[in-house]
Amino acid sequence: MRGNFDPCLVELLKHEGGFVNHPRDPGGMTNLGVTKATYEAWVGHPVGESIMRKLTISHVRALYLVRYWAAVKGDDLPKGLDLCVFDFAVNAGPKRAAKYLQLMVGAKRDGVIGPNTIKQIQQYTLTHGVPQAVNRYQSMREGYYRKLPTFGTFGRGWLRRVSEVTSCARRMAKGTK
What we know:
By secondary structure, this protein is mostly helical. The chain has one domain: Up-down Bundle (Chitosanase, subunit A, domain 1). It has helices at about 5-15, 35-45, 50-55, 55-70, 80-90, 95-105, 115-130, 130-145, 150-175, and strands at about 30, 35. β1 (about 30) and β2 form a beta hairpin.
């Protein structure tokens, strides 16, 4: 299960793109999927638009690894499911991504993936298989987006993202039960 961070980051960045500052996006100024507020918290000081525009993958890789991948225990998740949970963590927050995973596998919904949640994930994927876990998680994720008040503005893009991540996750999961 280890070693899938870089392929997952590559897939995630296909959807995050470059610099945007959409007036209806509650995240505000964003580059490579990292909001200005998140980047400021990461570097420990305010940054302006010029810095945000100049972000590169090398600037944000460690942030993604620590704040999102490690937060959802990506190294402990089956290949494919790790991508789905990581992508949702980036898009909607690690706690929310963890809670949806916990709901799916019947674990306590505290937003922290610990040993008990990992055990439940293992049992769930042993019973249902990783591809089915991917399908179920992504279906729940789609339901989350459809309920958001900004769905009218961003919904089509979110659903496309879910579909594309699901396809990639299924390819990653191929060969796992």
